Task: inverse folding
């Protein structure tokens, strides 16, 4: 399972990059929309990466960890953007 962490971390890095780009490039009125789009992209990438691993064992756990981590990152980014 140790190499599966790379797929989980990839989604978290994607969430961080999306949050930073949103903070830098988005207008205050469109920040929430771009955060939502970033979460949608993270979800799609998560599903694609986990299916690409071709490993059934732990699939739900890996997807849950990827998406939960992305949500936590994006919630923090949203709080920072709104303050």
Result:
């Amino acid at each position: 399972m140790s190499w599966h962490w790379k797929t989980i971390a990839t989604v978290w890095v994607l969430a961080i990059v999306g949050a930073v780009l949103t903070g830098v490039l988005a207008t205050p009125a469109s920040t929430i929309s771009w955060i939502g789009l970033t979460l949608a992209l993270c979800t799609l990438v998560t599903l694609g990466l986990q299916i690409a691993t071709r490993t059934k064992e732990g699939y739900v756990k890996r997807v849950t960890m990827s998406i939960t981590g992305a949500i936590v990152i994006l919630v923090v980014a949203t709080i920072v953007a709104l303050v």
